[in-house]
Amino acid sequence: MISTKVVRKINSVEDPKLRDVFISILEEAERIVGETITKREFQEFVKATEENFRRVWQAIDALTQKVNELAEAQKRTEERLDSLTERVNELAEAQKKTEERVNELAEAQKRTEEKLGWLIEEHRKTRQELGGLAHTFGYILEDRAYKHLPGILKEKYQIEIEGKLNRKFFEVGRNRYVEVNIYGRGLRSGSEVHIMGECKSKLSKKDVDKFMKMVKGLEKEITGDRFILFVTYHATPQVMEYVREKGAHLIFSSEFE
Known about the structure:
alpha/beta, Trna Endonuclease, Chain: A, domain 1, five-stranded mixed β-sheet, 5 helices, rod-shaped
């Protein structure tokens, strides 16, 4: 007789084909045993068979546990993969937003550069206009100086102008000239004196140094006594003192009254 334990084990097999195989094996074993071995031998055979089945079931249990562990591991892997996929999607969305922001900044930079270019051009135009105004005021100041300086020079410095004061260009090299805003000749105490002057709307120390350097460079062209003067609308006390230190004279436009 086959052990009921073995039968129960066989009946618990879910796969019908596998269950049929086990049953066929037992039936064949029972037939062979019935024909060839004694009851004692059969009992030993059953015992051995049960032991083999026990080992098989242990192996099946171990395999099932391993499969379950693998399934659990697979589940965890899929969960991590889902988490990773979600993170990748978040990064992709963040990257997309970053690229959009970069594009916005690039567009803003482009507009800023265009605006800056416009401002630079407007500044250039303004400087040109201011430069034109400065030249205009400068020419007005020069014209007034030509008219009023002879009387002022005679009254304050006892210089009698011969002819007229005017603008004059001096050649200092091949096709190179320097301009003196105010130039003329006069007599002081019977001696000839060269009047050399610069007109500036607002006189600075830099203007004084530049003109004095030019005057020094004309020593060969203009020999004899020289009377250096500056005509301006405005000069600070520091500049006024600086003019005196250079041995020059300062005349304000307010004296042209």
